[in-house]
Amino acid sequence: MSHPSISAIGKPMQIAFVPPDFDAALKHWTQTMGVGPFFVMENIVLEDGRFMGAPSDCRFTIALAQWGDVQIELIRQDNDAPSIYRGDYLPTGGAMHHVCLLTDDIAGARAAVEAGGGLVVVEGKVGADGAVVYADCGPASTRPNAGAIVEILQPASGSEGFFAMIAEAAKGWDGRDAVRVVG
């Protein structure tokens, strides 16, 4: 049985960065780029999270905003756990870290990644019924490939409403209330 290519999983919906200075990146995106508002979620830990096959309790903060058809994500790791957000998987200078694709079939997406030669680096549960994998889709001979990461998200029920709220808030945003902390 053949599997679809990685690009067939879904269209890129998000570009993510792990900036060296999270607050400076928020300022850059909101003030210089005019993107916002950003919605910040703190103290995230993936349920059953694994990094390179081993359990991981990586704790991180994300900020999400909509820029046209694309969501922008900024990530800050908040503990010292081994993760994709530090070390060999951290691009220098705050360059793009990964793109995110949405799927309703995480098992099929994982099979497509592996059939295409990708390496699943992170996996975990998201919410009550969602899941995520991050795959290094760069050449195996040059792994780890910071910046060649594809996140594949099977959103938890209700996520589409949250994503729609972020996109709606960006329409006609006037620069006020640029950073909004959410539950």
CATH architecture: Roll
Largest sheet entry = 11 strands, mixed
CATH level 1 name: Alpha Beta
Integer-rounded radius of gyration: 16 Å
Textual characterization of the structure:
It holds the Pfam family Glyoxalase_4. The structure is a single chain. The chain has one domain (6-172): 2,3-Dihydroxybiphenyl 1,2-Dioxygenase, domain 1. The chain is an alpha+beta fold and 183 residues long. An eleven-stranded mixed sheet has the order 4-3-8-9-10-7-1-6-5-2-11. It contains three helices and eleven strands. A hairpin with a 2-residue loop joins β5 (60-67) and β6 (70-77). The termini are far apart.
Topology of this structure?
Layout: E1 12-17, H1 22-32, E2 38-44, E3 47-51, E4 54-55, E5 60-67, E6 70-77, E7 96-102, H2 106-115, E8 119-126, E9 130-136, E10 149-154, H3 159-170, E11 179-181
Parallel strand pairs: 1-6, 2-11, 7-10
Antiparallel strand pairs: 1-7, 2-5, 3-4, 3-8, 5-6, 8-9, 9-10
Which descriptors would you attach to this protein?
single chain; alpha+beta; eleven-stranded mixed beta sheet
Compact overview of the structure:
This protein is α+β, with helices and mostly antiparallel strands and 183 residues long. The chain has helices at 22-32, 106-115, 159-170, and strands at 12-17, 38-44, 47-51, 54-55, 60-67, 70-77, 96-102, 119-126, 130-136, 149-154, 179-181. Helices cover 18% and strands 37% of the residues.
